[in-house]
Design goal:
single chain, Spore Coat Polysaccharide Biosynthesis Protein SpsA, Chain A, 4-stranded mixed beta sheet, elongated
Amino acid sequence: MQGGGARDFLFSVVTAAYNCEPWLDTCIASLASQSLGFEEHIQLVLVDDGSQDGTAAVAGRWAARYPDNILVLRTENGGVAAPCAGPVGDFYRRRRLRERKLFRRRAGSAEKQ
C-alpha cells in the first residue's frame, strides 16, 4: 500500500489498473487537472490488479507526487470491480475523464439534491 492519507474528499475514484502502463499517465493526469481542484477535492484509489508491466512504477510515481490524494494497492488479478467493497457508483471511461469539468458538474448536481 502506498500513499493516500486520511482526509475528507468530495470524490473518491476507485479504479483497477491491469497492464495499463501506456495509458495510466494520461488517466491520472486527467484527474489531476480537473477544474474542481484535484488536491483539495479528489482522491484516487488505484488498485494494481496484478499487472505484469510497468503499471506499478507509474502509479508509484504519481502517489509520490500526490501522497495525500493517491492510494495505490496491489492485488491478485480479480477484474475491474474487484476493488469495490460495496455497490459500484459509476464507471468512468478514459474519454469521460478527459473532460476537465466532469467532477465540478457532478459536485454541482450533488449540491442540488
